[in-house]
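Holo prediction. Input below; ligand is 6-acetyluridine 5'-phosphate.
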Amino acid sequence: MASKSKLSYGERAKHHTHPVARRLFGIAESKKTNVVVSADLTTSKELLDIADKLGPYIAVLKTHIDILDDYQYSVVEALKDLAVKHNFLIFEDRKFVDIGNTVQKQYHGGALQISSWAHIVNCTMLPGEGIVQALTQTAEREDFPYKDERALLILATMTSKGSLATGEYTRLSVECARKYSQFVIGFVASRTLGEIETEAGPLENEDFVLFTTGVNMASKGDKLGQQYQTPKSAVETGADFIIAGRGIYAVPDPVETAKRYREEGWNAYLSRIGEA
Ligand code: 6AU
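Structure of the complex:
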């Protein structure tokens, strides 16, 4: 596969086959940012406050909606409004990890109604192909109300020490991304994966979007096995979008810090595409 990582976000926005990826690249290009903030806050007020303050500097807001102490559906309605106000996408980091029949119910419906507000969700490959097949099937149902507005990322590697998301697990991630590319737009991973050979082979015009997490400008890791790299090294390794949580929201001035992540991530992207 000819890697698309040397192309500009604008070019990729024009040619991508998936409408959510086109939108994502369009947002990155127009706001000049490849930052995804992982807003792992535990009250609705803090979550909405950080989303409103950082909105202008990010392409995507990533949530773990189930960690809110005071969750009510009104919080995601407010988040949706902020996503429109600041032009960002919402990524619910749900990491679906069950049999197909269960994840369909967890994604579309249920207590959290995730499909009604999250543009992007992710899943692990632990259950095998069925999980991707099931989520894709839901998104393709005749009566699915958000057609062309929702997409899936596969968690293909993990940043935590001793992770088992390697080898055959990662290979299957790539195979399923290729097989279900009508819903899968890319990966959460710390390296590019296009060179991995699978039965379906690289797709014609393959352009999976790489989200890299474990990004922090001030720390090398935490005490629970998280491992960090900088925005620059992540983008140099192929990240299209850099996900940062505590490095941005847990510092005295999140807005100034988000701007610094944005600048470092953007400059690394410009050098990668040869425009620096
Ligand atoms: O920057 P942090 O360490 O405060 O937060 C990192 C965020 C957390 C994790 O749940 C998530 O990124 N994450 C993921 C994702 C996005 O799927 C995968 C992974 O391997 N490591 C990781 O930290 O919300």
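The beta strands are 35-38, 60-63, 89-96, 120-123, 151-155, 184-188, 209-212, 241-244. That is the main takeaway for now.
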